[in-house]
Amino acid sequence: MQRFSALALIRHAFGGHRSWRPQWRAAEPKAAYDAVIVGGGGHGLATAYYLATEFGISNVAVLEKGWIGGGNTGRNTTIIRSNYLFDESAALYDHAVKLWEGLSQALNYNVMFSQRGVMMLAHNVHDQQSLQRHIHANRLNGVDNEWLSARQAKAFCPPLNIEKSMRYPVTGAALQRRGGVARHDAVAWGYARAADAMGVDIIENCAVTAIRRGVGGAVEAVETTRGTIETRKIGVVAAGNTSTVMAMADLRMPLESYPLQALVSEPVKPIFPCVVMSNTIHAYISQSDKGELVIGAGTDAYVSYTQRGALHVPMHTLEAICELFPIFRRLRMLRNWGGIVDVTPDRSPIIGKTPVAGLYVNCGWGTGGFKATPGSGHLFAWTLAKDEPHPINAPFRLDRFRDGYLIDEAAAAAVAH
Amino acid sequence: MSASCRLNAGGRIDRSRPLRFTFDRKVYEGFAGDTLASALLANGVHLVGRSFKYHRPRGIVAAGSDEPNALIAVGSDVRFTPNLRATQVELYDGLVAQSQNHWPSLGFDFGAVNDVFSPLFPAGFYYKTFMWPKSAWKRLYEPKIRAMAGLGRAPTLPDPDNYAQRHAHCDALIIGAGPAGIAAALAAEAHGARVILCDEQAELGGSLLAERKATIDAKSAPSWLADAVAKLSRSAKVRWLSRTTAFGSFPHNMIGLVERLTDHLAAPAEGRPRERLWQVRAKEVVLATGALERPLVFPDNDRPGIMLADAARQYLLRYAVKPGSRAVVAAAHDEAYRAAIELAAESVEIVAIVDIREDASGPWADRARAAGLPVLSATTICGTRGRHRVSSVEIAPCRPDGKVGARSRLDCDVVLMCGGFTPTIHLFSQARGKLRFSEKLNAFLPDGGAEGIRCAGACRGISGLDAVVADGVAAGEAAARDAVGGRIEAVHAPVPLSEDEDGGRLEPLPHHRSPHRVKAFVDFQNDVTAKDVKLAVREGFRSIEHIKRYTTTGMATDQGKTSNMNALGIAASALDKPVPAVGLTTFRMPYTPVTFGAFAGSARGNLFDPVRVTATHDWASAKGAVFEDVGQWKRARYFPLKGEDMHGAVARECQAVRQSVGIFDGSTLGKIEIVGPDAAEFMNRIYVNPWNKLEPGRCRYGVMLREDGSILDDGVVGRLASDRFHVTTTTGGAAQVLNHMEDFLQTEWSGLDCWLTSATEQWAVIAVQGPDSRKVLERLVDDIDLSSAAMPHMSVREGHICGVPTRLFRVSFTGELGFEINVPADFGRAIWEAVFDAGFSRAITPYGTEAMHVMRAEKGYIIVGQDTDGTVTPDDVGLSWAIGKAKMDFVGKRSLTRPAMTDPDRKQLVGLLPEDPELVLEEGAQIIAELPADAKPKSKDAPIGQKMIGHVTSSYFSAALDRGIALAMVAGGRRRMGETLFVPMPQGVIKVVVTNPVFLDPEGKRLDA
Amino acid sequence: MLLIDCPFCGKRPELEFRYGGEAHLARPADPADLGDKAWGQFLYGRSNPRGVHAERWRHVHGCGRFFNALRDTTNDRFAATYKIGEERPAIPEAEGAASA
Amino acid sequence: MPDLTQARQSVLEGIEASGRAGTFSLLPPLSRLNYRGRISTVGRVAAAFGVEPAMEPCRAAIFGDRAALWLGPDEWLLLAKEGEARSIIDRLAIALAPLSYSLVDVSHRQVALKIAGPQAELLLNAGCPLDLDRQAFPVGMCTRTLLQKTEIVLWRVAETEFHIEVARSFAPYAWRFLEQAERDL
Ligand SMILES: Cc1cc2nc3c(=O)[nH]c(=O)nc-3n(C[C@H](O)[C@H](O)[C@H](O)COP(=O)(O)OP(=O)(O)OC[C@H]3O[C@@H](n4cnc5c(N)ncnc54)[C@H](O)[C@@H]3O)c2cc1C
Ligand SMILES: NC(=O)c1ccc[n+]([C@@H]2O[C@H](COP(=O)([O-])OP(=O)(O)OC[C@H]3O[C@@H](n4cnc5c(N)ncnc54)[C@H](O)[C@@H]3O)[C@@H](O)[C@H]2O)c1
Ligand SMILES: Cc1cc2nc3c(=O)[nH]c(=O)nc-3n(C[C@H](O)[C@H](O)[C@H](O)COP(=O)(O)O)c2cc1C
Ligand SMILES: [Zn+2]
Questions:
Q1: Which of B10, B222, B319, D83 is deepest in the core (most CB within 10 A)?
Q2: pTM score, two decimals?
Q3: Structure confidence by residue, pLDDT tens digits, B303-315
């Protein structure tokens, strides 16, 4: 792998940047691999990277039906935080945040992880109770999260409107200072480059179309649009398309796939110093390194794979944005898009084994899995390599929908992203 | 100030209305009908901004919404608006405009050092550096990168303007009012269709606004246009909208339009909306959006004064502005000749027409030569000079293989370029229409697949005015036929596409310089050069989507209108693939940026979300009540007396209820009336409780579950008759519960004979609670026997209060003797006041939700949503007694036997008493079983190292008990009665004792006081 | 915003409706008969297909009725809407073909 | 004991400027009954109520000052003069016995507004997503629908006149919304 650095940049500048090499190879599929990862999003690529770096399994293919990072990894509002309520979730997401903190260096790729602080607003007594419950639980779990009064919230984020005359005035906020954002594309590319350097084959334009199983039902191979590939371990990390892929192994998943929309404004000079989320009035917003305000809208109500949605969804979000930040009312929407999020009944992910031997699944991240990318990849790699879950992902098993041990962050707090 | 570049005659400007405006504080003059761009050009101003990354001086390139460079801030104070395109800003008297992205000034910008160091900033450079030392990212690199980014400044004051919204329907929505769109609108109207025609420009006409010689139907273009607009205006079936951009296309033919109402006015009428967002549902859509001209990619093609040829022609003919006096015209498409000829006719010196094509022949070249214009075939542009405006170009002959010959210089003050045209298929593609690449036209053309959307005119590759008009007619007729139905027999066929047309060029122009060093811009706004695109390919970014994201080409505020096709051409050749095999990036809304305010519309302040208030709201308000938001409702939280805080008010209110009588507005509770012979059976299935044995006139506390076994809602149910139940729900749960009930009734048990009616809003509910409550009510009710014997706890009676019909419940959420008076809502205020007057001598006290919460907690009553959270079963909160044990089934029953639901370690509702009675626990505080080693944690975020076994759900100071009390959910809580547990707080650990959750009057004696 | 053909009221904007999830998941007559696995599937297992999806909608701000619809989740086009209790209509191959 | 039978107070009191000249105004109180039952029972309603409820979806039937609005295939909203609810309930009880049905007095549940004049459609379309063209939404058509963020029952009583019913606690919102929208006419 050619090292990236300021020096390298200067050196290449003299050569007119002629000698940069591809960041990852355009690999041709081989006949067989020790493990095949279905889905070249952040989670799939990270899984391959950790399989190679931590578990010594580098004869791995990542199969991506389109271009890597083109799924939700390339469409999300990049909010990263770990102030989840339940012990299981806090452990999972904080594992990821810790990995984020050294990721640029580990990958030798600047993923622009920016710990600008994620502030979640309270607008009524119920919100306050719910956020306080999070804060207390987080503190005992060693996850930073603190309560701010409305005024302190405004000091932290000056554009915020805290006028009492608002329809739902801000009554306070929970702030996780270690939370922030990262450059989504760089995460996919950085993992791809580093995994490729370890020998992982990243195969784009290669859709998995069938899963072949042998005696006893164990997986044997995947059929793809680029031929059959044999393998004894398949890790499905296909986000919105997981139900479709798992159906190839006759598994009916507890998932529904919904369009989730987001949008950006025209770029403006730095004005917004952090990330703000309001679950009650449905808005979340940050400003990217390039200057656009990155704004998350809601999901459309129905199952769909169209990667677009209805107009009323971003309209609703922008109502909330204009109410919270009336100075942004004259700014303009530059682009709006949608992704397909795979949602579980308890809004927590599924990471683990399946009833089919050799088939593993990592899905159900819904509206909030970008933040988990490094942790998810690491834990899933562990699970694939050892054929058993890491203690952190053990509770996130598929079986919980049979016996009822749900990890219901949604029911507990209804805070998603 | 004289407008030196303005022609004395011609154009569509109104010379009788001069307007003054400022640009970067300097005063200029223009005319009504000008855009800011045309007025600046009329004043000889080309330099209007600095580029995003390299801060290069930039000028006006285009004449429409495709302008990539001339982004300007307009207005001041509260109406300051950044990033507007000068080409779309209409001039008004007093307009204040400022250039952007420079320091200290447009002419002298320190940021321009970036241009010098640009070799260090190739595409994606930031991914490769700024990683060491790690800590410098946050403190140094990132703030620096961020400060460089962004174009304009965001406003800093709240926007005072209003925005309107409107829904509309039509048979045919026609987007674009050029010749094709107007012809389509006329044709559709003539065939009986309801038509909406919109165009983003100030005037209808599109390309016709810059036509003077052409004729349509034997009329001159301007008079055809005037007649057509007059005709459209007269028709009752047509609504035409100028200044209205169709910005997005959504499923099932919904199109979003945004109409700009006041930005072009010097003094808009007070309160007039600034913009109006239209949501149009069209049976058929005709896209007549024309085509966008493409720049040519050559070294230093971005200097001010280098502009699109057809744009220059429009400035000349529509605005009577000469963009320069000595023009070099760079042609890869015949339209450049047309511009050259028109400019020459207005005495702009055409230094040369430099045609990259090998053989500049054909009618246009002949006409140019005939007009005496120098035409150079097979010639390329190798570079340009000029600091703030182009002063010369370097040209050279070139061979088809790209070999470049001897160079020479042409002095000029403007360069006009035309690389060809790109059909405006944005909305078609947003609607998931299929595209086909035409090698001849070098363009993607619409190719079906978008239901109910057809294209006409230049946007489907048709050129030539007659053909475009005929195509518009055909599209208008067909739209009318498909929308209105079979009334039209013969429809004109769409004009066949002539693919001998001139497709222009997608490749950069050849030159002699190192392609790794020169800047030949592709995306002007994001400073993406041809070499950036090639670098991306070299680095292994093979998908056009990756190339876009790595280089940011097409991601600026113009979304690649002028650049995407050139970027694609370069990428395709670098990848050595045909253009269609590389393909376009995804088109997304909006077509041009749309104001947030237009999306938000009227939703601000009180219109942000309905404010629902009860009948006694004004009374409570007058009494100084503090309200809280519960869903959309405003509820009185407490009624402080002068100088009283919440704590004091709540203690006083509770005391009043416990000692004499209090009055509380419970109107927000959801109410559903369930009627029919099978009502009880329906209730049996929906609730965990049994209902058969409940006598008419009696009430029961009911609990209902989701199918997964968790508590959905609860509330008191009164049986009014054997076939009629009056059900109450929580305030927030009302709509959800009704939907849940309708769902089962309609889809699972449609055989049951019973019906649901929402009655939440029919009844005002006045709770009168406390030992004196009966005495107060007795004075107002004469047809109901209120005695305990006649009307025991948990009963309901119908009768009258002060002559007004009432459903009177004897229920209690406070643990005291109490009643809830239901009266028709419009009587709520009067009855409330009557009760208040009747209780005056007993010091009746209004109390709010906070006191209500305290009192119910003293009694261990849960609040769904506070003590439960969607994971809680009836048993968890001690409600197993409510479950009808004999019932075969009810919603959620099966789930209660799943392993997780019967786990002995589930969290259960308990009471907690802090060891220190003064102390009130924090709601949400966590509970652990053993005293931690460090009573005071070392650092704020150090993990406790012990499993949390529960949390506090409700906690108050109880005046009645004179101590803090709390409800909590604790793992295996009921086993732990009497145990001491610990609540670790940042300040230290609090000891608590686990108790029964009923703190007060466990035998319920007070209910019958 | 979808345009949804309510079997009672005709074509109406999506705003008037509430989505009701997958259709034809009949509630077992006696849930107690089901083992945990089957009950878990009933509660949570969803076909979530790319292609034609049978789903429930309620015209909540209209006639109030629940009804079923067939919609292609790859392009959001409705192939049919039909009343509760009516059988799932067969739809022509061309429309029904799910794109992979 | 005070007699408060005349003390009715509209939720719009204080918001509504009396004698408004604009496109919308408040209508006086009405008796409102929500009738739900199987279609086979509706004939008997006609006899007792004096108006034959429409079977056709989204149609109102009127006779004199009474109206029956189809709201759903088993649901009709019966409108009559204020104060008649009790007697209508009693008459229907006799006429319908022994059939099963549901009749609930919802007179106070909602408030009626009139939207009239040449701009009525435009005003409504500021928040109502339906096609209000006279062909698409003819006189006599009625339906539940939305006015921006609140549900309404919309009924076209004449070419240029609509009657809308809005839930009591949403009425101030509807009113203020219409006021705001009126500025855009
Ligand atoms: C608008 C939006 C906003 C969001 N905001 C946030 C946020 O702020 N914070 C946050 O933490 N999360 C957020 N999320 C969620 C987050 O984006 C996802 O959880 C996360 O990116 C999932 O990563 P992934 O790698 O699992 O999935 P993806 O990136 O979607 O990758 C899955 C890949 O699988 C491929 N694939 C599918 N089927 C096949 C097949 N048959 N064969 C081969 N390949 C296949 C797909 O093409 C895709 O590339 C948001 C999501 C969206 C859509
Ligand atoms: N080769 C070509 O394709 C080509 C090149 C140059 C000129 N022409 C000539 O131009 C004319 C084309 O006529 P036409 O009617 O097809 O196009 P036009 O350019 O005359 O009109 C298109 C109109 O659509 C408007 N528009 C585009 N997108 C819009 C949107 N999203 N919302 C609202 N308005 C939008 C534009 O402002 C413009 O007024 C003909 O005379 C033709 O000969 C053709
Ligand atoms: C965090 C973030 C920032 C983005 N910023 C921009 C931007 O500045 N300009 C732009 O055109 N698109 C921007 N996009 C959107 C992408 O162009 C694109 O719409 C998105 O990745 C979805 O892909 P698709 O639209 O090709 O389907 C951004 C996307 C994300 C996730
Ligand atoms: Zn309906």
A1: B319
A2: 0.97
A3: 999 999 999 999 9
